[in-house]
Amino acid sequence: MPDVRTLEIATEQQVVDRVYERVEVMRERARSLAREGHERANAGPTTGLVERDAMVLRAADQLRTLDAEEEGLVFGRLDYDDGEAYRIGRLGLREDDMEPLLVDWRAPAAAAFYRATSGAPLGVVRRRVIICRGPRVVDLDDDVLDPDAAGDLRVLGEGALLAALRRSRGPQMRDIVTTIQREQDEAIRAPARGVTLITGGPGTGKTQVALHRAAYLLYTDRGRFADGRVLVVGPSTVFTNYISRVLPALGEDSVHLRAIGELFEGVTAVRRDPAPVAAVKGGEIMRQVLVELMWQVPPAAPDRLRLVYAGQVLTLDAAALTRARVRARTLAEQDATPPNAARRFAAAALVEALWERADTAHLDRELFIDEVGDRSEVRRFLHAWWPPLTPAAVLSWLAEADRARPVLDAAQAETLAASYRPGADWSVDDVPLLDELAQLLGRVPQPKAAVDTGVRLRELTSGPRLAETFMISCSLHDGWTLWAPGVATPIALAGPQIDNDAAVAAQRWAEAVILREGHTVVGWTDGFDPYGEDAYVPVLAEPLPQAEPEDEPVAEADYAHVVLDEAQDLSPMESRMIARRAAYASMTIVGDLGQATHPLAAATWPELLTRLSRRDSRTLELRTGYRVPQLIADYGARLLPPEIAPTESYRPGGVLTVRQVDDLHAAVREAVAEAPRDASVAVIAADQTAEVLGAAVDGALVLPASLVKGLEYDHVIVVEPAEIVAAEPRGRSRLYVVLTRAVAGLVVLHRDPLPASLT
Q1: Which CA distances in Å does 142 have to 48, 123, 129, 131, 315?
Q2: What's the Cα-to-Cα distance from 383 to each of 298, 321, 340, 731, rounded to whole Å?
Q3: 479-483 sheet: strands from edge to edge
Q4: Which helix (H) or strand (E) holds 208?
Q5: CA torsion angle for 214, 220, 223, 228 (degrees, to 10)?
Q6: pLDDT grade, residue 61 (50/70/90)?
Q7: Exposed, middle or buried, 425 (CB in 10 Å: 0-12/13-18/19+)?
Q8: 309 - beta bridge partners?
Q9: pLDDT over 80 at 487, yes or no
Q10: Is the pLDDT of residue 203 over 70?
Q11: Could you tell me if 280 and 412 are in contact, meaning their C-beta atoms sit under 8 angstroms apart?
């Protein structure tokens, strides 16, 4: 006769099978919806394309949700004291009669799965964790929250949380949707508005909570947060790669996940500068350095201007050009104009300097200004003397120490210059400076393109131009298509038909689409499409508006919510970069002051909020560590300053080995060989030592201490703690981070004496 566990697993398997059957039904419905949409465009009314687009988009969204990670699609069950029972899963499903089959973990009805306790059961008698491998139930684990009401309910297991915590760590972070605890759930479901500050020590699940919070916000207000409106910022690309699987596993793939070194478009920086350099680059004073730098003479600018006017040879030497540049800067700053938009002030300053060089007794000033300003040699000189500036080019000027000395002292300027040696790639600490310069320099004004309001003449072209108005055309391959102003790709109507009836239908369909865009068609005329082929051009009741060249596009807030992980390490310049992206966004800030390692890290959370241009926050503290065993947590906590309370670990035990050795390389190889075979293993050392060990230790992941923040491994081998402490001003905090990366076993190998608190 089957035992109780087997019977209970079989019961849950029936429900899980029904869930997967239902998912397949919904998949087929989504595919049918997509097919129907395409059929309506081909055989339906002339407005079929509009309906098709809406139906296909909806079907694609449904399929994307259903095709998300299916590992553990069903993971929980709640049995209530009124006899009701609900299964909890990664998405919500209903039967055809609208009865709930599976409750989404983010729904209010699922909150009790995470919040109910024996002291406050919230009506829950039994909470069951259903452990699946794909669609197969392999085990169950129960918590009885109200024993008096349990009745005939069968109870299995020894604690779902401990079982989950004993699982080996993989190369990427897993979601914790099955084991979220009450204090974590409160942080996940906190209101979206304002700033939510989540603090806690190593292993408290801060990062997991932040990622699950992003998924929760998308679930509760998808209209506001979907389509890339949520940004998650991590400390390094190693970290973002590590956590990259969590949100897709929760069915969310529209979140932007970026490391600090990836926030400036076109740059992916992974290298961190040494602490003395980072202390200079990260300070608020760097903004003043950049402001002075961008007005300086570009390295390739000419230093002499000579021209002949009315028989007079007029020459501007380097000193005169310097004065003209100062005058141009003064005019631009008075007008709040950035350098890239200030060429008109530079031109005025040059002409004024030339006027001062001339014998003006018989010259007309206005005529002189008009004629000299229009000279080709002056325009060529101006382009070279006041060129368009890019952030990368301007920042590279700091390789010359003198360029920073108007603001920095000699030692700081030399420190900065040494970091910009020829051939060096950008560091993470450079990214906020590039971002700041992009704002300071401004955009280069674009010349206004000539507008042809009539029908374009047919021309031979090597490819399509952007359409300047609406038009429809027909080709054998694409059939009837509608071109829209400024859009490179046309909208397809139907198959290849070239008779008169099809042309009339195409015009009617196009009129409906154009009307939807706010324009009324009163007639049609012959014209040419962007390829130069014959086309029909609509006559509009009102002409299309033309953008004025001086009108800058109105910038909308890039993000509606920003999740900031490991926030305790943000420098002032990094904080400014984040603040620009979160100017109109709500925020979730996650961190631990005990792990602050940047030389300019904020001393308190209010100080960091001020740097981010925020004042108030709701603070939620995670006090319990679920990852790091107590023995390892206590060992690392010896490095904490007195004002920071250590985390209380939920997990007893842990394996700790501290060994003094003579040959570090041999000891590391031996420790790697002794590590559990089914565990994830990492060797962590000071950055320079890690480079050497990486080539000497085969078959093991060797990481520099500066890049392990936020990562976790089953078995960690720490090499020479004294080197890690000595490498930077906040070396004790760095070592604290390193020692708390292990979730099962920690081996400390040293040749030099250990820091005093670890002996």
Answers
A1: 53, 16, 6, 11, 90
A2: 11, 14, 11, 49
A3: 491-492, 479-483, 471-475, 534-540, 521-528
A4: helix 206-220
A5: 10
A6: low
A7: exposed
A8: 312
A9: no
A10: yes
A11: yes
Q: Are 419 and 276 in contact (CB under 8 A)?
A: no
What is the 3-state secondary structure of 398-463? HHCHHHHCCCCCHHHHHHHHHCCCCCCCCCHHHHHHHHHHHHHHCCCCCCCCCCCCCCCCCCCCCC
Report the alpha-carbon distance of residue 66 to residue 58 in Å, rounded: 13
**What would the two tokens of residue 570 be?**
């943000």
For tokens 């949707």, name the residue.
177
Strand pairing class (534-540; 521-528): antiparallel
How far is the C-alpha of 208 from the C-alpha of 176, rounded, in Å? 7
pLDDT at 509: 80
List, for residues 708-753, the tens digit of each pLDDT value: 988 889 999 999 999 999 999 999 999 999 999 999 999 999 999 9
Q: How confident is the model at residue 162 (pLDDT cuts 50, 70, 90)?
A: very low
Closest CA to 430 of 384, 403, 394, 378: 394
Q: Residue for token digits 């033309």?
A: 546
Token readout for 527 is: 């014209």
Share of the chain above pLDDT 90, in %: 43
* Region at 613 (left for phi over 0; alpha for psi -120 to 50; beta for the rest): left
Amino acid letter, 533: E
* Residue 339 neighbours by CB under 8 Å, 6+ apart: 294, 295, 332, 386, 389, 440, 441, 442
Which of 88-92, 338-342, 482-486, 546-550 has the highest mean predicted lDDT (pLDDT)? 338-342
- pLDDT per residue over 231-246, tens digit each? 999 888 877 776 776 6
pLDDT per residue over 658-698, tens digit each? Answer: 999 999 999 999 999 999 988 899 999 999 899 888 767 77
Distance CA(297)–CA(608), nearest Å, equals: 36
R_g over Cα of the chain: 33
Per-residue model confidence (pLDDT) at position 500: 54
Helix (H, G, I), strand (E, B) or coil at 323: helix
Strands in 618-622's sheet, in edge-to-edge order, are: 256-259, 230-234, 561-564, 586-591, 195-200, 618-622
DSSP label of 153: -
Q: In what order do the strands lie in the sheet with 742-750?
A: 655-660, 742-750, 713-719, 681-685, 701-704
What stretches of 44-145 show up as alpha helix (H) in DSSP? Answer: 48-66, 111-115
Q: What is the pLDDT of residues 276-317, one digit of tens each?
A: 999 999 999 999 999 999 999 999 899 999 999 988 999 999
pLDDT at 236: 84
Nearest to 639 by CA among 536, 543, 745, 718: 718
Backbone angles phi, psi at 719, to 5 degrees: -110, 125
- Compute the CA torsion angle 177, 179, 181, 185 (nearest 10 deg): 10
Q: How many CA atoms lie within 13 A of 104 on its CB side?
A: 17
Question: What does the alpha-carbon distance between residue 719 and residue 697 come to, in Å, rounded to a whole number?
Answer: 12
| Rounded distance between C-alpha atoms, residue 580 and residue 482, angstroms | 38
CA–CA gap between residue 40 and residue 294 (Å, rounded): 57
Tokens of 69: 């990670």
Pure H helices in 587-663: 605-611, 630-637
- Strand ranges (E), 531-571: 534-540, 561-564
Of the pLDDT bands very low, low, confident and very high (cuts 50, 70, 90), residue 337 is very high
Question: Number of C-alpha atoms within 13 angstroms, CB side, residue 670?
Answer: 11
Question: What gap in Å lies between CA 505 and CA 479, rounded to an integer?
Answer: 13
pLDDT given for residue 165 in this prediction? 46
**Over the stretch 511-539, which tens digit does the pLDDT of each residue have?**
887 877 778 888 888 877 766 677 888 88
